[in-house]
Design brief:
By secondary structure, this protein is α+β, with helices and mostly antiparallel strands. The chain is built from two helices and eight strands.
Length: 181
């Protein structure tokens, strides 16, 4: 019992030192660790409503979400022949390909800036050159389920100079388990 109390007290002391170092060490260069300074300048005195002065706001643990890339060129529109494809039953460790055909239905060149699968098993390939107004193209998606099994649904997000900037297409499959050899 006494050993648990000692460990608890040591944890509290260590936590206090870490907090004092964090709040006072970097924000107040003239401060020292003396008890008089700590009593006159408690850690809470360094916290303000202004984000630039608040040592907690730098989001060390959670970085800000990246903004989607800005579209290049004037806006246009895209129309897919199909927005969803079902592969049906597929086996584990196979490569399954499908081409999503689309048309630039706007009056400006379509510039696809990126196409990203919702997981590493879904890899899209998209045209890097602008697609003229009225022109068409394809986004090939290769789905490799690896060891996944059962019903699967994956998304490909296409970022382009369209409104909205992101368009999504989906693939589905029922992955059958392949017995280990």
């Amino acid at each position: 019992m006494k050993e648990n109390i000692k460990i608890g007290l040591l944890a509290i002391i260590a936590g206090t030192l870490v907090i004092n170092t964090f709040f006072m060490g970097s924000e107040n260069e003239n401060s020292t660790s003396s008890p008089e300074k700590i009593a006159m300048n408690p850690p809470s005195s360094n916290i303000s409503a202004s984000p630039s002065n608040n040592p907690i706001t730098p989001n060390v643990l959670t970085p800000p979400a990246p903004e989607p890339p800005k579209p290049s060129g004037p806006p246009t529109s895209i129309k897919f022949e199909k927005e969803e494809h079902d592969f049906g039953k597929v086996k584990q460790d196979t490569q399954n390909k499908y081409k999503f055909k689309f048309k630039n239905t706007g009056s400006n060149p379509l510039i696809i800036e990126n196409a990203v699968g919702s997981c590493g098993c879904t890899v899209p390939t998209y045209p890097k050159e602008p697609v003229a107004p009225g022109g068409s193209g394809e986004i090939e998606v290769v789905y490799s389920p690896g060891k996944q099994k059962g019903q699967q649904q994956k998304t490909v997000t296409v970022t382009a100079n369209t409104d909205p900037r992101e368009t999504r297409v989906q693939i589905k499959a029922e992955v059958e388990e392949v017995p280990a050899k």
